[in-house]
Design a protein that fits this description.
The complex is a heterodimer. In chain A, α12 packs antiparallel against α13 (300-322), α15 packs antiparallel against α16 (394-405) and α18 (442-449) runs antiparallel to α19. By secondary structure, chain A is mainly alpha-helical. Chain A has helices at residues 12-36, 56-86, 91-99, 101-116, 122-126, 131-152, 199-235, 237-252, 255-262, 265-270, 272-280, 282-296, 300-322, 350-378, 382-390, 394-405, 407-430, 442-449, 458-487; strands spanning 43-45, 51-53, 175-176, 187-188, 327-330, 335-337. In chain A, β1 and β2 (51-53) form a beta hairpin. Chain A has a domain at 201-485: MetI-like fold. Chain B is mainly alpha-helical. Chain B is 68% helix and 3% strand. Chain B has 13 helices and 4 strands. A two-stranded antiparallel sheet of chain B has the order 1-2. In chain B, strands 3-4 form a two-stranded antiparallel sheet. The longest helix of chain B has 36 residues, at 121-156. The relative contact order of chain B is 0.12. The chains are: A mainly alpha, B mainly alpha.
């Protein structure tokens, strides 16, 4: 086995790619410069009454840019298709494209189905009208599928993510595996890290950690923010003053200092994160309880069984979330028992729990402020007055009148906030806080790789680029959603 | 206006007090104290030795008493050992009896002693703040003008090619946290792997003599993340101004586009970004900590990491007081500045 190059048998395409990229860049710069110069274009009226405008030089540049963009895109697709067909013969990129086949199929199916039914899918369907939104959605779904297939089903990963292979320490991307056996994958596609583990496998294994924790933490932050922000905005008065002061208190705390104080083994030993988890994770239970009760309390026949089922399930989930090894808090001096191990179906180790809790804690005041502002605005609308006249209870108005009408900005902020949470998680990993040091998540991997950055940068660059694309995808998705939701 | 500022200052003081109390509480939890005792003494101390070590140094007093001592409103601890030597918070064994102070806390100007750096906290914080101030100054010099330029250029013709390209640039820059851009910059411009080696991957030498080669990468790394956000806010405010009635009037009068942008739109469009820039400064602290760790520049952020990592209580408290004051002051300045810049808003 020999060292792989980046593009292998498809290298002749490289030259074409460079040329189209150069044309694209030059074109974009020319377009921006031309945008600064005002120009008159001639308009001619034809005999049949139609009008033709001369697009002039800027039109020409615009055409060149769009063709160059299509050509670049085409070449990239060629690389990927070639890679799927030829595997590692098409170099490292080809090898990766082959490994990612399940992701490509899942992406293609998602897009095909969504575009086919986009008129019936509401805001989600409208996303497919905007290019920016589609690019963002594609990037996000790429990582979701990659995390799912790589982290859960272990289809993408080529090697075990924790085992060290002798002779592969800090090896460059595309190095053949030393002493490979018959069934093994023959290369380290993205090289080895400083503990001689496969960077490529760790990348896709870690994607799942990121793709699960960040959105979940954001969901919890939204639950807390909504449950507190709606009454603060709707009732106002002293409740609002107190809650706003608390929110501002947390917001004035430098995030990084809070992480350093909260996410340490000593603090975990005192059980403070567990108590915080007990409080913060209780908000979803309260939220759904109030949500359903305010809607159905006039029909006890529906309400009572519904509440019993939903609350029973949620409460069970709540208890298994905060219970760890049969105890909620367990340290030297005392133990606070939780539910028995047999019923504990969510296994969340205490390191993950503390990271989760601190991220929720940092994010919820901002959500609180947004929701409070929206509630303040919406409570003056006519439909709220109508509901009050009908004699609806305050919680019904808050959760079934105000909240649905605040959904647009909240959905956009939700996307942005997932990206921000991803960045925060990476920051925690970067400082080696929270997750254990062999965890494959991207922040921890960047932290491990940065020590040898000036000699072997590949181990740190790969997760850095991954994190960049995921957050970029989320930002573009939020942008697309904002554009589309403003349109109507 | 005066009353408003006074009330805000009072609220600020209350917030700072609450936050320092939280930091104090977290750092004074017993496992943290135990770790402190073991790093200061030795790692094989028995539990009794730890307890007596802590008791001798006043760490086991009730929390409010300790906090009051730190603030300087309660007399500092005094321990008399069995062999007759007397030590206290405010004096060492060698100090003559009549020169021993009873109170020594923040109010008396005594910020305490750092257990990690073996130095006075106030002098450590002052020197490190100076170094970080240098970094922040260059960050602001790079970040603010470029962000405003990008925002104004993008916002003056909404939907144009220039708008779309620059908006993409700012989205990409907000999606690149400091540890990602820093890693990529070091790898590309400072490592042997790409062979460019234009800049240095470490900013340690910039502490004495900063030059373009050793200081540009850290400054760029911090500025890039904040730049995108400010640029987007500027763009939003600029597009809003450009659709205003008075801009249309100016156009109909026949004012040239350049004059409209520079004389009519720009001043009104820059009110909102001012607030955003002020509120962005506390967020730069995040970036400062990351970049100072990544580039090994021993400033304020580096001290924060060291103090937190070693549970250096008094240093950590001073660090948190400084950062909380920065946060609250910038909020206050942004509120006051907003009123001055926008005469339509009056504070009752």
């Amino acid at each position: 086995m020999e060292q792989l190059t980046w593009t292998g048998a498809l290298s002749p395409l490289n030259f074409a790619l460079y040329i189209t990229l150069a044309i694209l860049l030059a074109g974009i710069i020319a377009q921006m410069l031309l945008g600064l110069v005002p120009q008159g274009s001639t308009r001619a009226v034809s005999a049949d009454g139609t009008m033709a405008a001369d697009q002039g030089f800027s039109g020409l540049v615009g055409k060149v840019v769009s063709y160059a963009f299509l050509a670049t895109l085409g070449i990239v697709v060629l690389y990927l298709l070639g890679g799927v067909a030829m595997g590692t013969d098409a170099g490292i990129i080809g090898g990766m494209a082959r490994q990612l086949v399940p992701v490509w199929i899942a992406l293609a199916v998602t897009f095909a189905v969504s575009i086919m039914f986009k008129r019936k899918l509401g805001l989600y369907g409208k996303l497919f009208d905007s290019t920016v939104g589609m690019i963002g959605f594609g990037l996000v779904m790429f990582w979701v599928f990659a995390g799912f297939f790589g982290g859960v089903l272990e289809m993408i990963v080529t090697h075990d993510t924790l085992s060290q292979t002798s002779g592969m320490k800090n090896k460059l991307p595309g190095t053949p595996l030393r002493g490979a056996e018959e069934g093994d994958f023959q290369w380290f596609l993205l090289g080895g890290d400083n503990l001689a583990r496969d960077v490529f496998s760790r990348l896709f294994d870690g994607a799942w950690v990121v793709v699960v924790i960040a959105p979940l933490a954001t969901v919890f932050a939204f639950m807390v923010g909504i449950t507190l922000g709606l009454p603060a905005g709707y009732y106002g008065g002293r409740l609002d003053t107190i809650l706003s002061f608390l929110a501002n208190l947390i917001l004035a705390f430098p995030v990084i200092l809070l992480f350093f104080l909260l996410v340490t083994p000593e603090i975990v030993a005192t059980g403070i994160p567990s108590y915080m988890a007990m409080i913060l994770f209780f908000f979803p239970v309260v939220f759904f309880c109030v949500l359903l009760n305010s809607r159905f309390y006039t029909q006890p026949a529906i309400r009572t069984p519904l509440l019993i089922v939903v609350l029973g399930g949620l409460f069970w989930a709540y208890l298994s979330l905060i219970t760890n090894n049969g105890a909620i808090v367990s340290n030297d001096s005392y133990t606070l028992p939780g539910i028995p191990q047999a019923l504990d179906w969510i296994a969340m180790p205490s390191e993950t729990l503390v990271v989760f809790v601190s991220v929720v804690f940092v994010n919820s005041p901002t959500v609180f402020r947004i929701v409070r502002g929206l509630a303040l605005d919406i409570k003056t609308r006519d439909y709220v007055a109508a509901a009050q006249t009908r004699g609806e209870g305050p919680w019904y108005i808050m959760l079934w009148e105000i909240l649905p009408n605040a959904r647009g900005p909240l959905i956009v902020d939700f996307c942005l906030r997932i990206g921000y949470t991803t960045i925060l998680l990476g920051t925690l990993g970067f400082f080696g806080l929270g997750l254990e040091s062999e965890s494959p998540d991207w922040g921890t991997t960047i932290n491990a790789g940065r020590r040898l950055l000036s000699i072997y940068p590949h181990a740190a660059i790969a997760p850095a680029v991954c994190l960049l694309t995921l957050v970029l995808g989320l930002n573009l998705l939020a942008d697309g959603l904002r554009e589309e939701s403003l349109r109507d | 206006m005066g009353l408003f500022i006074l009330r805000r200052l009072g609220l600020m003081l209350l917030t700072a007090l609450c936050l320092t109390f939280i930091v104090f509480w977290l750092t004074n939890l017993y496992p943290n104290l135990e770790k402190l005792a073991k790093t200061q003494g030795n790692f094989r101390m028995s539990d009794e030795a730890v307890a007596s070590f802590l008791d001798d140094r006043g760490y086991l007093d009730p929390l409010p008493v300790k906090f009051a001592q730190w603030l300087g409103v309660a007399p500092g601890w005094v321990t008399e050992k069995e062999d007759g030597t007397v030590t206290g918070r405010c004096f060492t064994e060698g100090t003559p009896v009549d020169e021993r102070d009873r109170f020594c806390g923040v109010i008396q100007g005594d910020w305490g002693y750092s257990t990690v750096f073996k130095d006075d906290v106030s002098s450590i914080v002052a020197t490190r703040l100076g170094l970080t101030g240098k970094l922040m100054f260059w960050v602001l010099v790079l970040m603010v003008p470029s962000a405003l330029l990008i925002g104004v250029l993008a916002g003056m013709r909404e939907g144009s090619k220039i708008d779309r390209s620059l908006s993409t640039v700012s989205i990409v820059s907000t999606a690149t946290p400091e540890y990602v851009s820093g890693v990529i910059f070091i790898a590309v411009f400072a490592s042997s792997a790409f062979g460019l080696k234009w800049f240095k991957g470490s900013a340690t030498s910039a502490m004495e003599s900063a030059n373009f080669e050793n200081f540009f990468l850290p400054v760029l790394t911090i500025s890039l993340y904040g730049m995108g956000y400010i640029a987007r806010m500027t763009r939003a405010s600029m597009t809003e101004v450009m659709t205003a009635q008075y801009i249309r009037t100016a156009r109909l009068k026949g004012v040239s586009f350049g004059n409209i942008v520079l004389k009519h739109a720009l001043r009104n469009a820059l009110i909102a970004p001012f607030t955003v820039i002020m509120l962005q400064i506390p967020w730069l602290l995040n970036g400062v900590v990351i970049v100072e760790t990544l580039f090994n520049y021993k400033g304020f952020g580096w001290v924060l990491v060291q103090a937190a990592g070693n549970n250096d209580i008094e240093l950590l408290l001073a660090v948190s007081v400084v950062s909380v004051i920065v946060v609250l002051l910038t909020q206050l300045i942004s509120d006051i500045g907003y009123v001055f810049l926008n005469p339509r808003i009056r504070i009752s």
